[in-house]
Design goal:
Radius of gyration: 18 Å
CATH topology: C8orf32 fold
CATH class: Alpha Beta
Number of domains: 1
Helix content: 40-55%
Shape: globular
Mean pLDDT: 85
CATH architecture: Roll
Distance between the termini: 51 Å
Strand content: 15-25%
Length: 181
């Protein structure tokens, strides 16, 4: 029994260490930017604002808003690998299934509207580009037009520019991702 417990603990340590190594090595390179998303309509915006915790709503920072927008989008959508050209965040939320580009449009609309209401000098843009793991472009290993690039969000605020990906957060709880120059 003692050996089983030790092996299980060892396996957990190895898996968590490997996860940390992979997450640390992730980086996104921006190839271009998509058009700005439409604003959330009043019912969708009200649903977002209702989910902001009352204490957090007063003390919200751009970083906390980024984390909220990514987590809330991941909570409301389910990833689906189907090609769909929707860019209206309201229609995306109504459909509830989305791929990376659609996740990014919802995050950007959520973040930008709440930041604008607070008169912050902060913005979120929908970008497309490539995923790198320790300097290796992962797109060259995956064929097909669906995987030719990946959509994610680029946030800019007083701390600088950084990326976040709600579809990656949905599965692996990865919050921030480095941007390659």
């Amino acid at each position: 029994m003692k050996r089983v417990v030790v092996r299980v603990l060892l396996l957990v340590v190895v898996v968590l260490s490997a996860y940390g190594v992979v997450v640390h090595g992730l980086a996104y390179q921006v190839v271009g930017y998509r058009p700005s998303p439409r604003s959330l309509d009043p019912p969708h915006l009200a649903a977002v604002q209702a989910r902001l915790p009352p204490a957090a709503a007063r003390a919200l920072t751009p970083t906390a808003l980024q984390q909220f927008a990514v987590a809330e989008t991941a909570r409301r959508l389910t990833f689906a690998m189907k090609h769909n050209a929707l860019s209206d965040p309201n229609k995306i939320l109504d459909g509830q299934q989305a791929h990376c580009k659609m996740y990014a449009y919802v995050v950007a609309a959520t973040y930008n509207q709440v930041a604008q209401q607070r008169h912050w000098e902060a913005a979120c843009r929908v970008a497309y580009g490539h995923v790198y793991l320790y300097g290796v472009n992962l797109h060259r290993f995956v064929g097909g037009s669906f995987f030719k690039d990946h959509d994610f969000c680029v946030f800019s605020d007083q701390q600088g520019a950084y990326a976040a990906d709600a579809s990656l957060y949905d599965y692996f709880l990865v919050d921030r991702i480095r941007l390659r120059k």
